[in-house]
Design a protein that fits this description.
This protein is of the alpha/beta class. The chain is built from nine helices and 16 strands. The strands form six sheets. The protein has a six-stranded parallel beta sheet with strand order 7-6-8-9-3-10. A two-stranded parallel ribbon has the order 1-2. Strands 4-5 form a two-stranded antiparallel ribbon. β11 (245-248) and β12 (256-259) form a beta hairpin.
Length: 482
């Protein structure tokens, strides 16, 4: 047997108040405390354990709630004081207390809450209108059934939110987000299930950096758990709980609207902020004169674009007649006399058309590569000619071996000459025979003579091969003598 090795130093790092390990057997986990880590066992047995006290994630409003329940000695690092307030919502932390009941799936037996799903999705849409990106938001829920309901609602009615992360609390441990929207689901039943576990609540409340918004039935939760009663007292003492959430315009925080149902968000969007927008538009610098609006607030590139008269001028100094936010139309000022792009003078042409006026009507006298003049209407000084030469080709057919002009090319000048296929007679091949059935473009040196060689061999007999067979290797031995 191997000897046991002694360990001089054993260091454990962790947080026993976050989610516990999970076991495949629920019965064994509960009966033998297999869900309790070795780290937690040491702490429960009174083993000394120093703790980190300074947190660098949450705004003080969020960390104060967490510290009251789980970390009494928690302190805020100076950097969290610089986290911005949530735009479009009056408070950085709020618990929406409602009385809507949960429901249970017949297939998965998991629970969901239709009201909470719709309310938080409307709230997420409201935050996107305030300028937040999809990656800034996370929707958390305590049940897989609610996660599925949220995603189904997004696919059906909230396509703009398809990139927003929707996760269960258990799968989001160790992660964080600028703004967290938390759906607790449970309400109105005889039990609150695993919402009574402090570890899960600790994770859920400590994921947000700037804003935390919770939807749940706080009356039911507080009636079933001392932990939730403490949380309710903390929230009530800080005025962070109620039946209606206060939203506002990020540009005019004083214009508050109270929303308690999903439909209230639609009404708030329709009514809008009662103040004038007043935003300084870019790049013109004009102030927006529309009533304050949530949509298109950042860019003003849609229905709320600048409607003032454009102050720009054309390159010739004529004032633009369009609106500031629209692309400048072509200048309609009529020039008595102006120079076109080709260099010729034209009269009575709108200023904006001069830069597009490629032809002034004169005939182009530029010579093409073939030597013929272009002959088209003027199409710009030094520009490339748009059409090819349409004159008759002055050359002979391709490969023609007769005198120039004997077989003229019938094609147009810009086209490739066609091969000369005119039959010719009388041409002498390299073998000395006269060629037959030759085309004008055929090279005699490449033509295979089909006549008999008929040369005298050393034996005195005549070669009976065809002439082309003897061109390369000479005549074969006499078939009579061999």
């Amino acid at each position: 047997m191997n000897k046991c090795q002694l360990v001089d130093l054993f260091i454990l790092l962790g947080d026993h108040q976050q989610l516990r390990p999970s076991t495949n057997s629920y019965r064994l986990g509960k009966k033998f405390n297999l869900e309790m880590s070795f780290f937690e066992r040491l702490i429960r047995s009174g083993y000394p354990c120093p703790s980190l006290r300074e947190q660098h994630r949450m705004r003080p409003e969020i960390s104060s709630v967490v510290s009251r329940l789980f970390y009494p000695n928690l302190e805020d690092h100076a950097s969290v004081l610089e986290h911005p307030r949530v735009s479009g919502i009056a408070k950085s932390v709020f618990f929406l207390d409602h009385q809507f009941q949960e429901s249970t799936s017949h297939l998965s037996k998991s629970r969901s809450n239709a009201f909470e799903a719709k309310f938080l999705l409307h709230l997420a849409s409201h935050l996107l209108l305030q300028g937040y990106r999809d990656s800034d938001l996370t929707i958390l829920t305590t049940y897989v059934g609610q996660q599925l309901r949220l995603r189904q609602e997004i696919d059906s009615n909230f396509s703009r939110l398809r990139s927003v992360q929707v996760q269960t609390v258990d799968n989001f441990q160790g992660e964080e987000s600028r703004v967290v929207l938390l759906s607790l689901v449970r309400g109105g039943g005889d039990s609150i299930g695993f919402l009574s576990e402090s570890n899960r609540l600790c994770v859920a409340l400590s994921r947000a950096r700037e804003g935390l918004y919770v939807a749940g039935n706080l009356e039911t939760l507080a009636a079933k758990s001392e932990m939730w009663r403490c949380l309710r007292e903390e929230l009530e003492g800080r005025n962070m709980v109620g039946s209606a959430l206060e939203i506002c315009c990020f540009a005019h925080p004083g214009a508050i609207k109270r929303v308690s149902t999903p439909e209230d968000f639609d009404r708030a969007v329709r009514e809008g902020c009662p103040k004038k927008c007043g935003a300084v538009l870019e790049p013109c610098g004009h102030a927006c004169t529309f009533p304050c609006h949530l949509e298109d607030r950042r860019t003003h590139s849609g229905a709320f674009r600048c409607r003032d008269r454009c102050l720009r001028t054309c390159p010739r100094g004529h004032p633009c007649q369009g609106l500031c936010s629209d692309p400048c139309p072509p200048c309609q000022f009529v020039e008595e006399e102006a120079e076109a792009l080709c260099g010729h003078l034209v009269r009575g042409v709108e200023c904006g058309l001069l830069e597009f006026l490629e032809s002034c009507g004169a005939t182009c006298a530029d010579l093409l590569r073939c030597g013929h003049p272009c002959g088209l209407p003027c199409h710009g000084q030094g520009g490339q000619h748009r059409q090819r030469c349409q004159e008759r080709c002055p050359k002979s057919k391709l490969g023609c071996r007769e005198e120039p002009g004997a077989h003229p090319c019938p094609r147009l000048c810009f086209q490739d000459c066609e091969p000369c296929l005119q039959p010719v007679d009388g041409r002498v091949l390299p073998c000395g025979h006269a060629g037959t059935k030759l085309l004008c473009s055929d090279d005699p040196a490449l033509v295979e003579c089909s006549r008999r060689c008929n040369r005298a061999l050393e034996c005195g007999h005549r070669c009976r091969n065809y002439c082309y067979e003897c061109r390369q290797g000479g005549c074969d031995p006499c078939y009579r003598c061999n």
